Each structure stands twice: as structure tokens, then as C-alpha cells.
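Exercise: predict the structure of this protein bound to adenosine-5'-diphosphate.
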Amino acid sequence: MLVAEGLRKRFGDREAVCEVGFEIASGEVYGLLGPNGAGKSTTISMITGVLPRDGGRVCIDGIDLDSGPPARRRIGLVPQAITLYQDLTARENLLFWGRMYELRGTALESAVQQALEDVALSDRADDRVATFSGGMQRRLNLVAGLLHQPSLLTLDEPTAGVDPQSRSAIFDLVERLRDDGMAILYTTHYMEEAERLCDRIGIIDGGRLIAEGTRQELVAQVRNESRIELSFGGARSPERSEAIAKSLPDVRRAHWDGEHLAVHADDGNRCLPGLLGALLEAELAPSRIDVIEPDLEDVFLELTGRALRD
Ligand SMILES: Nc1ncnc2c1ncn2[C@@H]1O[C@H](COP(=O)(O)OP(=O)(O)O)[C@@H](O)[C@H]1O
Ligand SMILES: [Mg+2]
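Solution:
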């Protein structure tokens, strides 16, 4: 559906986006995950034709973006900033955006009606947007980009400043659109959102795509290891647990930090029975056990040496 290749953008001396490329299929949610300033909005702006490219190519349904309106009309854009008129009602805002997408008459009216229903705002349709909460405005902003039924929807950090209820409404809508066969580009700096929502994820940092794949592929790419954390309540000499853990074949590393024993293993669940057996034999009964699987935060840390959120 979408093919983006070698995208480049420079602002003065700053290389904001450098050789970024990816493909998105119909019925797929592709997440662009990276910290603030990574180049997510700049990438989306080039894909939607809002910002001219310094280099690279964008194709939608096999049509080059540069060939004009037919390609652009297949794209829906939900920008990071809210683009609603505060003094107009929800319905008036959607009618405005629908006309921008060249919808008229009954097609326009039914698209607006459907959009209001999609984000559960029908009962507030004739209230001014100024009276809406941040989450309601986000939801309305989202469907404004959907009125012309695009085949690619681009969402730039659509949950920024949103309450949990609106966030979950946005997730539900994105999943429904995906199931209906839309291709979706979703940017976020929240690891949990990328993990929950995206079929494939590109990790972007400093304007470069540094890794790409499913959540599982990304995690496997850097480290195939889980961490088990144990505490021992009132047990006598719990520091002995370190040596016991280190003597087991499935354990890669173990460290007693004065409070917890951290055990690193290829497969936490396989290692656990043997570890527990050995500890109990030494009269070290754990009072708490956590098996912690690596996540995208660990991937980002491993690739860049920095935390995703700082
Ligand atoms: N219009 C602009 N003029 C100058 N620098 C910009 C402009 N837009 C973005 N940048 C810079 O480009 C980099 C990437 O920005 P952006 O794409 O907005 O990142 P993100 O959306 O991932 O937070 C940042 O260093 C930002 O300061
Ligand atoms: Mg941004």
C-alpha cells in the first residue's frame, strides 16, 4: 500500500530525517517509535506531502505521490496539533474538513454522521468544540482525517494529552479501521502503545531508522534473555542465593544487590523450577518472584545507550 524509500530532510545544518524507508500493507498498523525530536513528524509530513522532501520517494497504491491529487486523496492525515476551529461545532468542523476533501451533498452528510458515531460524539455534534475536553477534541481531530475514506491513515501521536477513556476509544477505532483493511502509520513515543497496537514497529532515533520488525523480532534481535527478580523476606544470609544461582546451567548471570537477587537466563520460565529447587534446598524460600521479559524499552536502551523516555 505505502512504499517510502530513502526519505531525507534537512533544516539548516540539522539532518532531521536521513534515509528513512518502510512499507505498510493494507490491514497493517505500522508504528514509528522514537523519542521527541527523533524525526517522526517530519517523516509523516513528507509522506503526506505537507513538507517537500530533500530526497526519497513515496508511493501509495503504486502511484507516485508527486503525480498529484489522485495519490494524495488516498491519504488521511491526523496531525500532532489539533486542527479544529474552537468556535465551530463538531459537525461544522467535520463539514469543513469534508469539503476540503471535496465531499459534497449527501455523501458529505453521511460521512460526517458516520464519523461522529465512530467516536461516540453524535450527542455533542452541535456543541462548540471549545466546550470539549482534550480527549474529545483528539477523537474529533482523528475522524476529520477519515471522512474521505483514505486507504492510508497517518496518525501523529494521537493520544498526547488524552484521558484513558478517549485513549481506549482511539485504540478501538484504529483496530477497527485496520480490520477493515486500512493501512495505518502511527507515531508515538510510548512503548506501551507501540506494543499494544502495532503489527510492525520501526524504531527511529536521530532521524534514522535503527531497527524494524514485529515486537517479538525486535526483542529477539538485541537480546534473548529474561530477568528473574527474587526477594527473601526473613531468610538467613540471603546473599548465598547468588552463588547458588550461578551454579545452575540455565543461568547466565546472577547478582545479589543487598535486597534482591537478579537472575538472567535465556528462558526465564524454563530456568525457574531448577532455581527454586536449589534455593529451597539451601533453606532460602523466596517471598517474592518476578519474571521480567525484555520489552521495547530494553531494545531502545541496547541500541542507543539511552532510555526511550527521559
Ligand atoms: N520546521 C522546522 N525547522 C527547523 N527544525 C525543525 C523543524 N521541524 C522539525 N525540526 C527539527 O527536526 C528534528 C525532528 O523533529 P520532529 O520530526 O518534529 O521530531 P518528532 O516528531 O519525532 O518529535 C528535531 O530536531 C526538530 O527540532
Ligand atoms: Mg512529532
